[in-house]
Amino acid sequence: MCYNEIIKSRGDESYWYKSKEKEGAGWKKLSGGIGINGTTIRQFKSIIKQVRFSKTYIFLPPLFSVGHISIRHPKVKYISKILKPLPRIEFLQDYLTHRIVSILIV
Q1: Which of 5, 6, 10, 87 lies most in the core, judged by the most C-beta atoms within 10 Å?
Q2: Which of the residue ranges 5-19, 39-53, 87-101 would you say has the lowest mean pLDDT?
Q3: Are both 48 and 98 inside the same structural domain?
Q4: What is the mean pLDDT of residues 57-61?
Q5: Residue 90 neighbours by CB under 8 Å, 6+ apart
Q6: Are 60 and 101 in contact (CB under 8 A)?
Q7: For residues 57 and 103, what is the distance between their CA atoms, to the nearest angstrom?
Q8: pLDDT tier at 29 (50, 70, 90 boundaries)?
Q9: Does residue 95 share a domain with residue 46?
Q10: Which of 31, 58, 57, 42 is nearest to 93 (CA)?
């Protein structure tokens, strides 16, 4: 898999990028699964809780609300408006959120 070759070429400093799955297990079967770059929103919240920031703000823009597709096809933003309340439902967040946007204050 090309991903593994790239990580291997980066040396030991990139150990935390390496998959815990067997090589050749397939991209969809990697431990990250759904989420943003393999990080679920629950994992992200857990990490920032461990660091103990004085204030945290997390924004979860719905799919199609930002990015190239929404710029090229403005009508797609209407779908985003329909989806807007759904990322508030915890089990739907990883499926319907475009990205994690956060403000973390030390």
Answers
A1: 87
A2: 5-19
A3: yes
A4: 93
A5: 42
A6: yes
A7: 5
A8: very low
A9: yes
A10: 42
Measure the CA–CA gap between 64 and 42, rounded to whole angstroms. Answer: 21
Residues 50 and 1 grouped into a single domain: no
Residues 6+ apart with CB under 8 A from 78: none
DSSP 8-class letter at 97:
B
Q: Say which residue, 79 or 1, is predicted with more confidence.
A: 79
Q: For residue 32, what pLDDT is reported?
A: 47
Instruction: Say whether both 3 and 54 belong to one domain.
Output: no
Q: Are residues 22 and 74 in the same domain?
A: no
> How many residues can be counted in the chain?
106
40 and 25 within one domain: no
Given this model, what pLDDT does residue 54 score?
93
